[in-house]
User: Fold these one by one.
Assistant:
Number 1:
Amino acid sequence: MKVYGKYYVFPFLYGVIISLYGSLYSKSTHTFWSIALELNGGYLEYINPMSIGALIELYMPFFFYVLFFSTYIYRHFCNSSVYVFSRCENRMKWYCKETGKLLGFTFCNTLAIYMGYCFTTILARKLSFSLKHIWIAGWYLSLFTLWCFVIVLLANIVAIWKGSVVGNVMALSLPVIATFSLLTIDCKHLTAIAWKHLALNPCAYLVADWYNVTLDGEKILGVLGPGLSIRNGYIIMSAYGLLIFLIGMIVVQRIDILENNKER
Amino acid sequence: MQNRKDELGSPVIWGVLFRYETGGRRDNMLRNIKTQINILARQKGVNICFWLLLLCVVGNYLRNIWYTRSIDCGNFRKMAGYSVWARDNVFGWYILTFFAFLLVLPGGLSLAKEKQTRMEYMLICRSGGRMRFYVSKIIAVFVVTFLCFTLPFLIELVLDYCAFNVPVEKNWNDAYVTYCQSQGVKMDYFLNEIHQNAPILYALVRIGITGVWTAALAMVPLACSCIYSKYYAYLMVPAYFLLLIFQKTKFSVFHQNITHNYLTYFWWLDDSMDEKGMIVFSCLIGIVALVSIGVILIHAYKGGEET
């Protein structure tokens, strides 16, 4: 953590800059809930090319994180191939440990963005604390952590397998393609196929307004008729994460970096 | 003989400008710049940036063709309204979303790569000094970025001219102004007069301004690559933050409130921006570019090692 602490300056500053407009120049107060909305897709009623562009803009701090950490396991794998694997045969144990650390770093990144926003809001004395809304902050942190973890793990696994450039390109282009594929869905008249497409797309779960949320009997979120389920969001993200984790196990077991150097 | 002719065949003005620097060989500096431009033009980053922009242009053109296939040509917008940079154009939005990435590709990466491969030292020796190398690098990056961000849009202008330049009646302008007034649309956007009378000239001027702005902003990653060149991803961060600050904050300069985000200034035909704001924004970009150039020149003068 001491070595990687400098990487969290960027997400924290991002949170601060993003919050300047909302905190310092706006007269309204913020809750944990409105901050989480500000940092994700927020109120996205229609899917059109412009709203997709706005959604991708929100991915940018996570994309930077992916660029910074896309070679985290890969670099350690290169070192371990020389120093660790020759003495310790159990690669799985090593891989699980590295993946766990990466998950922790990813959580810290998401937390740093959120903290950056909260920092300015607290300084401007515009944060209204409410325990009712704190679970929304938890939802934002956990779901975005899982999503970012899936991407960054994919980047690392592909980097071990095919080289770091391919890993980065693949990891950054897949979420963009998944987001653009949302363009085919008509939010107003959801057909069964469109609904399946929406429910299986991990990027759809990043838009808060597509959930149906009721607080104190009042509907505070939800523009889609049926609305996405938060539980399904966790399941989908975890399923993708588990799939990539298992593929990573096979890749780490089979690839020998000394024989297959892709960076030459 | 041919080589000798090439050496002396440079424009006189350049020879006069750089005579004090080069002593006997008048066109030494010009040759440095030409070499740098040649190196830059062959770089993968420049090609990726150019082709991505061209892809956006072609995509936008096909999209315009698709949307206008069933409407009467009398209802065509003015030509500038079909550009990638036209207000609320989706391709323009995508370009501005990934603007930090695009800015780094032509200039920032080249110097970082030269530093990593130690080619920088060979080029400094060939250029005749660190200062000359860095000055020629600044000029080359400016020129290449300018060309990267103008050529695709000039191609678009030609395409749009072929497809959408419908001759209009003489009183069309008056009718358009009356319509805008009735709809409550303001007609005081930047270069409004030129757009009404000569849309092609308007498009050319705006393409030129966009090219100069991006070329000036490309100095930021170049300055960063002077100081740090280990990981390319870090070079994007300052440019991204700068654009984010332009986009997300309100500030006041010389009693002029900057209340728009920078996207507004890149878009054409936007009635929410006026000439004064445009000039202030240009000054801001100019200051950023001058500070970046200052950093590069200080680095060249001190001859410090990068981290």
Number 2:
Amino acid sequence: MQMKVFRQVSCFAMILLLALVFTVHTYADTFPGQRASTVFNSTSVALNKSKEGAFGATTYNYYDIKVSSVTLQKQNGTKWEDVKSLTAPSKVAKDTTLYTSTESYSASISGTGTFRLKAVFSAGGATTTSYSGSMSL
Amino acid sequence: MDSTNCVSNGNLDAIKCLLKEGKVSVQELNESVQTIIQCELKKPSEKIDMDKVYALSDLSWMLCGSPKFETSAQKYKVEALAKLKKHDRFRHWKKRSMAAMGLAASLIVLAIIGNGILYRHWLSGDSSEDDQQYLVGGNVVDPGLIAKGSAEIDATDRDLRTQDFQAVIDFLGYAPDVPQWLPEGWHVREYLASSHSRYQWIMVNYSASHSEDMLVYQIQRYTDADEAQFSFEQNQTGEKVETDGLSIYVTLNIEKTTGVWIIDSTTYNIAGPIDTNELLKIQRSIGGKNANESL
């Protein structure tokens, strides 16, 4: 009886320890996609713990590329809800195929929860929407 | 005695055979079993094969009910030894549990001391739900006990556009791996690079007189793969092609063939008006893993 209890406690302690030690984050959130694009090849949006957004895009041809809007979204259950519009980076990359920029949102993002950025990129009259991975703040 | 040999050898089939053929009765067999048990119990305690005693006792019990002992001392001896064995098992389990807990404790110490050892990040890709994008995102195994270090690539935000590969090397501080083979007619139009503390993007644009569209090759890397999130446009979910130990995701965006592959925390992409075979040939000329080592 004593051995059985000890074994159960040991197993439970092991599971608890492993769960505490290894936190596996996977970012396999569902992203609303858009249509295939004749203009954009790839886009990237990132949000880090310092609340700094990073934006990137590549195109198949030379265009003026910019981020036209950024929206903060918060996770509510399985859904993402718009919280507020954020300032889009002012950078406009001229006649290029590569766009990168960063923008600090430390003053704009408050509270706790799981957030992500939604960014709309514009180039050659086309737009494409991209989302960052989720970030717990 | 035949039956004794059968039992001592653990040959149950032989016992069954003897019983069936009537060469030995159940009672005779039980007596033989009892003899072996008693012989075993007469040995010094440390030499007694308790597994054998248990097995024979069980057999005896099955044959004629509870096993018989010559003296009550023998019975107590069996019971005492059984308790000892149980105690031994408990000690064994205790030892194993302590070892497991020690291992867990070691992992915690490792997590605290060697965050770099346990903290692993990598990228993986999959199609979006509606198949319209190929999404590459960061995955992290994080001990979660201490804050992540910021292994920065560069402290400043810099951009480069040039047709000179040496200028790219000077800008990055190393030579990025670029295709060594291109389909006929294609040549470098421009190198573009962007280096920031959080990311590096390197892009090579190729043009050809026979094509209005460009062929593009890019390397994308976030310092912290945790925050990396790339979306590649596509018509529908493509296919994964295994080549030289790498899994190349090949798809179409409108009429352009796109190939995406990931090595650790770096994403590589080729896209343009070429076919899959040409794309894979370009990819193979890059050097796969070596491309990542230079980053």
